[in-house]
Structure formats: C-alpha cells, structure tokens
Amino acid sequence: MRPETEQDYVEFVTHQANALCRTAYLLCGDWRRAEDATQEALIRLYRVWGRIQRKGAVGAYARKVVVSTTLDALRRKSSQEIVGGDDYFAHETDPADPLGVLENRLVITKALAELPPRQRACVVLRYFDELSVEETAAALDCRPGTVKSQTLRALEKLRTHPALAELSDLAVKG
Amino acid sequence: MTNELKTLLDQAADRPATFTPDVADLVAAARHRTRVRRIVISAATAATAATAVIAVLLVGHLGTTRPAPQPATTAQPKMVTDLCAKSDDFFRTANDDAWRQQVVSSWTDKVVEVTDADGAMTVRRSPDGSQYAYCVAGVPMLGRPLGGFGATLLNVGIVTRPYQIQRYWSMGCGDDPVDRDNRTMPCTGVRYSYAGRVPEGVTRIAFSGLGQHANATIKDGYWVHRVYTDDIRTGNVDPIYITMYDRSGKQVFKERY
Q1: Which pLDDT tens digit goes with each residue over B4-35?
Q2: Among A106, A139, A102, which residue's Cα sits nearest to residue A124?
Q3: What are the transmembrane regions (chain B) (predicted)?
Q4: What CATH number is associated with residue A153?
Q5: Contact predicate B169/B191, CB 8 Å
Q6: Which of A82, A107, A140 is where one domain is finished?
Q7: Whose CA, among A158, A166, B101, B144, lies 20 to 30 Å from A118?
Q8: Phi/psi class of residue A10: alpha, beta or left (left: φ > 0; alpha: ψ in -120 to 50)?
Q9: DSSP secondary-structure letter at B141?
Q10: Which of A54, A82, A110 is the C-terminal boundary of a domain?
Q11: pLDDT band at A172, cuts 50/70/90?
C-alpha cells in the first residue's frame, strides 16, 4: 500500500474505531469481544482499502465487516474457545454510573440479548447507527424487504419486553 | 426514528474509555496477513501446476511401462501427544499434527517450563528464535503417553491486548505417588496448564483457585503455571483467578479463568 493511502487508513482507524466498536458491543454485549471484532474487521479492511476507498464507500464497508465479524464470532461460540469469566451480555455494574443510566443500560442490553442475532443487528444498525433500510440491507448482505421484516419482528419483541413496554414511540412505530 | 430506543442504545454503548487500538500494531498485523495470503495463493498455484505436470508425466510413463507389483506398505504417522500451539496462530497450529511434531522434535530451546508429576508446560522457542510455542506434555500411564486433550486461547482474536493467555487441560493423577505402570483405574484428575507473554510492567502473576495459591513461573518475558484438581466439577466451587501485579505491588489485571 502506498504511504499516502496507508495514512488515510490510519486516519480512518483513529477516528472510526470507537464508533465501530460501540456497534459491535451492541451486537455481542461484551466489550472485549467487540474490541476483538473491531480489530479483526479493521485488519480485513486494510487488505481491500485501496479498492474500497476508490469506490468511496469506506464507512459502509467497514460497518459491514464489523457486523459480519461480530456475528461470525457469536456463531463460533460453540467451539472449544472459551472467554474467561464473561458471558455474553454479562452486565458489570459501574459505580460511576448514575443509577438511572445503569438501569436503562441493563434493560436494553438484556432486551437485545433476547433477540436473534440478525434481528438484533437490524435494530442496532437502524436505530443506533441510524442507517436507512437500504444501507442496513447492504451491511447485512440481504434484501431491504428482509431488513423491514426483521426489524418489525424485533420491535414487536422489544415492545412486549416488560421493561421496554412503556416506550411510547416504540409502541407505535415499526 | 425511534428516539427513546436510540437514547437507550446510546446509553448502553457508552463507557468512560474510548476504544483506540494501536494503529501501528493493526497495520503490522494486516501487512503480515496480506503477505501470508499472497504466499498461500502462490503456493497453491505452484502446487496445482506441479500436480498437473506430474499427472501428465505419469500418464505418459504408465502408457509405456507396466509397474511391478509392490508390497502394500502404509506409512503410519507418529502419534503426536504433546499439544502445542502458537498464541498468534492458535487454531491452525493447534490442529496441525505435522507442525506440532516438528515443534516437539526440533524446537528444543525451552524458554520457561514448569513440571510436576503429571507432565510439563513449556514455552518453546523456534530454532531461528523468531517464534514461540506453548506446549503441554503428559507423563505416560500404562505405557500410553498423556498429552493435552484440550486447549483454548483465552481472549481469542486479540491483536493488541497484552493479557492474552493460553490454557490447556490434560489428564492427571495429582502429586501423590502413583504406580503409573500398574494402575488399574485411570486417573480422574485434571491439570490445567496456563501460559502467556508477560505484559509490560508486570512482575508477578498470581494464581488462586481450586484451593491452591501460587505464583506463575516467569522467565525471559514468558510465564507458565499448572493447577490441579482431583475432580473437574469442583472447578466451579473455587474458580481459578489470575491476578497480575506490577513492580510496586499494584494489581493491574484480574480475571477469572
């Protein structure tokens, strides 16, 4: 890779790694896994960086790789690999957190954990990363119609979750 | 957009620390992987071409000469009982018998080793000094060598995290004297073997759990330790914790493994 192209990659990593990691965290519920998935995605991105940069779709591609890497890691959980001590969506209490924020955090991470991975990905990409249906479909490598139906099902489940039932706009929008 | 959901998701993904991977390490890892990929593709292409050439030559040869019948011989690969793997290439090396055989036979430089009645955990250095392998070996019982029968890379996939740890488990009889040649019942104990690179600034690595408290053996930047349990089921009662301390005695890492 040419130095100036590599410098672009370095700048992208510097500025976007944390955002990608947050998305990965919402998909897997474990910060360490999220960091690993993000790093793995960034390494994969390096190989195709020049080509993707010419296409002008670096952000979308990076998000797509992060999502697939994170979901792949979830599928591999049944192998002999063990991550010590932490289960997915194990919640660590943060003494610095205000109680209300902590409670909300627990509620949403628990609710997300109960969704199938693809539905969870739809919710995270649509409502956390604020992607359109088409962008979400591109990130998940599926049709827009699939995103719509998966999102609808996910929101229906979240709506019936006792702790989330009181969210007014969740109850009326799909 | 569902505003409340967005707010909840934002809160859930908030944490005080920002994730900033070491870009130099990432680039180095990416370059290495790109090189390996190119080599693999080149090797595969060369192998395909060579196979095609050999096939053509063989067809020509078979057309002109009739081979004499040969006695049936089957090469028996030597059983690899030592379980070795590299932390930075865990899944390929742990599943590659030929690689493990080569490590056991030719990587004779032992960086650090801990031994007990059931076997040993060793960090081995490659002959050219550039690579390191973590190996577990078992003492034979009834003439059969007991190698490791399970391995895992804790915190798998980490590129830059310094606390990457490799764990093996293998059959064991414990420290009490046992006549391993005449034992009628197999041992039911388990030895957990741990190894890793000593993170920067760490001077002591303590193990606690299964009723045991001890420090890992550290040498030349690597550490190893073994923990024994008579019954694997007791592992949940007193879980194993690894705690790392720096020179001032401050705890810098603690995790349940």
Answers
A1: 888 888 888 887 778 888 888 888 888 888 88
A2: A139
A3: 39-62
A4: 1.10.10.10
A5: yes
A6: A82
A7: A166
A8: alpha
A9: B
A10: A82
A11: very low
Smallest CA–CA distance from A48 into chain B, residue: B34
- Where along chain B do its domains lie? 98-177+185-256
* Residue B199 pLDDT > 80: yes
Query: Shortest CB distance from B8 goes to which of A39, A82, A104?
Result: A104
The mean per-residue pLDDT over the stretch B172-188 comes to 74
pTM score: 0.55
pLDDT band at residue A144 under the 50/70/90 scheme: very high
Interface ipTM: 0.76
- Interface check B95 vs A, CB under 8 A: no
Give me the number of domains chain A comprises. 2
Q: By residue range, what is the domain housing residue A93?
A: 84-174
C-alpha distance from B9 to closest chain A C-alpha (Å): 6
Mutation target to probe the B interface, by most B beta carbons within 10 A, among A45, A66, A105, A120 is: A105
Q: Which two tokens stand for residue B222?
A: 């690597």
Locate B16 and state its tokens. Answer: 């005080």
Give the integer Cα–Cα distance in Å for B64 and B58: 10
